[in-house]
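Long-time lurker, first post. I've been practising inverse folding by hand and with some scripts of my own, and I keep getting stuck on stretches where the structure tokens seem ambiguous. Below is the full token string for one chain I'm working on. Before anyone asks, I'm not after the true native sequence, just a reasonable design that respects the backbone. If someone could post their per-position residues I'd love to compare against what I wrote down in my notebook.
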């Protein structure tokens, strides 16, 4: 495909209700990843610029004040605007959760999850399965916007369940009609999960279909250059970055540079020594957040492979780093490495989950009629815990 001429929208501030997001960059919610410590790192590298969304919060768990959930909705005083993503399948419960956020001043922005493809969510009709049921989607959006008390409400979704059951254009029009402030589209179906290639052309089609509100693109943004290419190709108003920042919180520094006109000369290219310092800080922040150093280091273990990708570390050392039980042990192991290593070429590629699924797990009869579902699913359709 011939690359279009640069769009005048590149780098233009994104307006989410009263909140100006400049540059137009959003950290995607990721379960077990985008907690307060990781958001702190990403925000520091961006110089406080951008929008950084919480982990996915289950509306039932929020309404019932589940202890883990209440910790997840706690924001550092420096986080502005505070952004919460909600997952729900029952319009009434979603409305109650949104009203609680507004009344108790828990956040400044609410995002609704209609993009999660994992079986434990889709088998209950939630996440990326839900937009297929148009009346249910409309009812949830109506309750959310109606109970937000003026807080901006946005939504994140996928193209649909699979190539035979695409929903994103219908969902986009419903969102506009119900007062949603902006839409983010991951250019994959639920069946693709995280495999294959994201369909950026679908993002362009959605932008054409809903010119009234901002459209953000998501999928296969592994570098700041990818973000620029997406915006030029699709005309989208901003980008949502998920797996691309795993082990790369400094990607937000690159995004600021790219979308502010500085270009690649402003990109972060840390040495392994600098990466090691970020790793230790990340683990320390997790320990402070969890109230226990050991728990923080254990929680950090899943990040080791992402941070060290591309560097000459070795599988045995990666294994040792991934079982460290204290900050001192983590620091000591890192000091055994050749920390003078420069940033490796090709280190910006795919990270995290990259597989597809042949079949999306759905409730029995889910695909029989997109307009049949009543206005709610059963009471057991929402888990009572968050973050998944």
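-- Answer (accepted) --
I ran through it position by position. Result:
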């Amino acid at each position: 495909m011939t690359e279009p001429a640069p769009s005048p929208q590149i780098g233009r501030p994104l307006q989410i209700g009263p909140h100006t997001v400049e540059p137009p960059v959003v950290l995607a919610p990721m379960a077990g990843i985008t907690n307060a410590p990781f958001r702190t790192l990403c925000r520091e590298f961006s110089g406080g610029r951008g929008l950084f969304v919480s982990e996915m919060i289950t509306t039932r768990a929020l309404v019932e004040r589940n202890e883990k959930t209440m910790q997840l909705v706690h924001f550092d005083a420096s986080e502005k605007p505070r952004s919460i993503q909600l997952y729900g399948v029952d319009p009434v419960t979603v409305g109650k959760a949104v009203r609680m956020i507004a009344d108790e001043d828990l956040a400044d922005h609410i995002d609704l999850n209609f993009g999660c493809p994992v079986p434990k969510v889709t088998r209950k009709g939630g996440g990326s399965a839900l937009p297929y049921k148009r009346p249910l989607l409309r009812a949830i959006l109506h309750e959310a916007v109606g109970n937000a008390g003026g807080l901006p409400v946005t939504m994140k979704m996928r193209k649909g369940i699979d190539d035979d059951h695409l929903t994103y254009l219908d969902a986009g029009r419903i969102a506009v009609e119900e007062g949603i402030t902006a839409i983010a589209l991951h250019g994959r179906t639920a069946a693709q999960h995280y495999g294959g290639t994201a369909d950026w052309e679908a993002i362009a089609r959605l932008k054409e279909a809903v010119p009234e509100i901002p459209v953000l693109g998501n999928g296969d943004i592994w570098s700041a250059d990818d973000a620029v290419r997406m915006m030029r190709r699709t005309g989208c108003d901003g980008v949502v970055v998920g797996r691309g920042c795993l082990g790369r919180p400094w990607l937000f520094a690159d995004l600021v540079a790219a979308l502010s006109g500085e270009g690649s000369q402003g990109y972060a290219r840390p040495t392994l020594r600098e990466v090691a310092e970020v790793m230790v800080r990340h683990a320390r922040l997790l320990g402070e957040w969890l109230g226990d150093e050991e728990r923080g280091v254990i929680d950090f273990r899943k990040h080791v492979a992402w941070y060290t990708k591309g560097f000459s570390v070795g599988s045995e050392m990666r294994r040792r780093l991934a079982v460290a039980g204290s900050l001192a042990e983590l620091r000591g192991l890192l000091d055994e490495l050749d920390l003078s290593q420069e940033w490796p070429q090709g280190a910006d590629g795919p990270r995290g989950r990259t597989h597809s699924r042949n079949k999306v797990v759905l409730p029995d009869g889910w695909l029989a009629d997109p307009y049949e579902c009543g206005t709610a699913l059963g009471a057991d359709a929402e888990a009572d815990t968050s973050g998944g």
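A couple of notes from the structure itself: The chain has 15 helices and ten strands. Residues 272-335 form one domain. Happy to go over any region you disagree with.
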